[in-house]
# Entry
Amino acid sequence: MALPAPSPAPRRALGTRLQLGDEAAARIRELILDGRVRPGERLRLERLALEFGVSVTPVREALKSLRSEGFVVLEPRRGFVVAPLSKRDVQDLFWVQAGIAAELAARATPRIGPEGLGRLDALHRELERADAARRLDLMEEHNHRFHREINLAADSAKLAWSLGTAARYVPRGLYGRLPHWPGVAMRDHERILAALRDGDAGTVAERMRDHVVRVGELLVAHLERRGMWRPAE
# Structure
């Protein structure tokens, strides 16, 4: 099935009133974790509000939320600035996700069944088609659905909630900007699928953990290329 060609889309304004603060926070996290704003850089409310198409109020609320998460700090006479972000910080974000995702994958292994495996196979084929069409937006969507299918099969709501909480710090739209991510995602998904078909929970967990950590290393390399850190860091 041929995929539709992407159409250019204007920068969209944020969503409903209740979502404004959360969506603004997600946008700012993406700017930070993509290296487009650097540690120590001042975040001007008016400029961000103009870019996001909202008033300064949800942007201010977003920055307060990000301050509690450690992404920004409030400095006297400067306002909100991007907090220091080390390689270890980025790696830690993914190591937390890797541990939880591995446990969920292990729990899913005896529960997923033929129907679940069939859905994962279909999602993996969609991922391959999106890659062939160079549709990174669709790749990210199918990647998200692939992992969600495994997490739901684990039937561990609180653990899945914990993973969602950890994963929200790394915006989904970021993965498509990482060189080599499409190839890594497809190869790793194939290996995870093979272990799921074999019913080998230990191998599934190991491969899922390695997969998430590997994606974290891709982000570290991406930020290094952008000059985020000095050589000594």
The chain has nine helices and two strands. The CA atoms of residues 25 and 63 lie 7 Å apart. Residues 17-82 form a domain with the Arc Repressor Mutant, subunit A fold (CATH 1.10.10.10). Residues 1-15 have pLDDT under 50 and may be disordered.
